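Data availability excerpt. The first of two example chains:
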Amino acid sequence: MRLALPPLLLLLLLAERGSGQHGSGTNTPNGGIDLGALLGGGGGGPGGKGGSVCPKGQVLAPKPEYKPAVNGCGPTGMRNREGDQWRLHECCNGHDTCYAACGTSFSYCEKQFDTCLKDMCKTVDGGARCLETASSFSSMTRAFGSSFHANGMREACDCVPKKDAPRRYEEYVTHLYERYNKRGLLGIPAVGACKDEEEEDGVAAGCKEDGEALLKALLAKYEGKEGKLFWRLGKTYEHLLWTTDGPEALSQEQCKIV
């Protein structure tokens, strides 16, 4: 299978030189580079739960003003453009932001990345070449990207005592909606206890003008899965919540996230 990767010699040379990526860098502790950064970009982390980067008794909570960087496929200054013809860079952007969504696990981000790539190949009718390129991207990040997921969590999140986490989650979601949604908390979609199939607008009567109730219902739905919520919110407000990086900055059209 033809891999969408630089030649092995180039990789070895890069391992000697290292290169920057999304603020946290692609350099590994021994001076080489983590090959996961050569494709999906983004920060890093061990597989399993995102909270594993925190000390015992603490969990991850988002930093309100943090904005993850996206740059398509590849590390800063070394974009891999082969997949751009099939819009695979949109999946790479989503992969970057997943690595910065507090509480997502490495395995979750890799599964979403793999699914996105395959679905995109089908959407654009890219055929075998697109699927081969997609497979090479997801295989490399799955094999080598875990440390970058951990670094992404450390960069984008704070470790807080478990008892303080619910308040931090509320503050973060409130910050997003009040800053980026013209309706504030009333812009939160009705879910759980606030969803009423019989109402014309789908919102239960007790929640129609109660943003706090909508907020609590949303967080209750994602209890224990807050990372997925934060990632989905990031994609909803993508042009406000992330920034591009690198000397080969993405064009506005290339800044799409899926």
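And the second chain:
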Amino acid sequence: MNAVLDPPMADIVTPAARNGAGTSTNISTATPTSPSTSGLFEKAVCLVLSLRKPGNRRTLPASLVEVDADKEMISAQKTLLASEHLKAIAHYDGEIRRYLYSRCLPSLFMTGVYLVPITLVEEVEAKLATFSATREQLVQAFIDAYPQLVESARGRLRSAFSEKDYPSPEHLKRSFKMEWRYVAFSVPGTLQTISTELFYKEQEKASQQWQEALEEVRGLLRTHLAEMVHHLVDRLSKPGEDGKPKVFKNTLVSNLTTFLDTFDARNLTDDTELAAVVTKARGLLGGIDAQTLRTSEALRSSLCTGFAGLKETLDSLVIAKPMRAFSFDDE
């Protein structure tokens, strides 16, 4: 595992183990000694999520590609199945990720790994269990339709159809997986029995990596809130081309409300400056929904003025330096 996630892992923790029932697998016991990073270990654990599904494209044999060019320079693909069921599963996977982005933070180490605030672990665990059950239903619906989809593909692909591209329903179903586990990080304590010098070098390395992670987590939250506030001010302040208020989705308000509601748990870096902005934003937005904004011009104007001031504050908090790219939309 250490080769996959860096810094090294300490404990793989089951929800039962956190509640005092069940067991955890101890991989190491030592943790970085930096106060600023050790606090993170007390506030969050890493969630490793794997969402798997079979690919739906295959490369066409060169013999089926007719072009006036060197075929070694050309690549063409075919779609195996025209399936709304597969699209539904892919969309649902995006919904799962969007939920996690609303409750957790990317761990900054690899795709599919999230920092889960300890106070939200039970909520996240329950939601993932619900997601898993619904996803299984979507997969089963696809498997039920699979034989008919294969026959449809046979007719549409004609000479490009190949039986070997289509496994049995039982084998195909095993290609769909939704798995997750919780991981705590630390320096492997066994290193100390081998080399004290190497042990402390690894402690220092892990501490530095987590410090960088903390800075990026702080920047990520600041940037995310700034983007939502910018969008809100834009939609409320500028009329459309017809002079009427701009149309906006319910998510303009609901996404911001979710951020404000979960901020205290996700504020793993104790960012007091951003916390002050969040407190003001809560005061401005409290009890207001999208439909109320649509029907009250005075409220839109008042809210826009208030958030315009927060926008300036957030602009000063967002440091203009390259950061890792994270998407809060469908992956």
